[in-house]
């Protein structure tokens, strides 16, 4: 006997990532808010604090995003880091070793967050799908 089963119903083994434009919009707003708060609390003379906070933001956003969203997330965070967390505020500059390092840190954080989330979700899905149930007694 053939039994037709509709695919895609029921719980998904692995959650779907958030849409990339939503991740980028959150990165834009979150980076703006973080840099604003850090400028008010710490000042613009300590970009290490801003780099650390934006790296954590990139990693958290990466946990809900696709791998393809990581470069855009890192670039948006770098724009706020470069434009508003270092003097002169509001001016984008490129200082090769420093800015390349900052972009690398932000991209690594976003990719690490995404990879770690995918591994944990795959592991949880594997455990849900491979758990053995005792046979039913008649």
Please describe the structure with a list of short key phrases separated by commas or semicolons.
138 residues, mainly alpha, 0% strand
Protein model, in words:
The protein has helices at residues 20-41, 47-62, 70-84, 96-130. The chain is mainly α and 138 residues long. The protein has one domain.
Q: H/E order of the elements? A: HHHH
Beta-strand percentage range: under 5%
Q: Count the strands?
A: 0
Judging from the principal axes of the Cα atoms, what is the shape? Answer: elongated
Overall pLDDT confidence: 88
Layout of secondary structure:
Blueprint: H1 20-41, H2 47-62, H3 70-84, H4 96-130
Helix pairs in contact: 1-2, 1-3, 2-3, 2-4, 3-4
Structure at a glance:
The chain is mainly alpha-helical. Helices cover 64% and strands 0% of the residues.
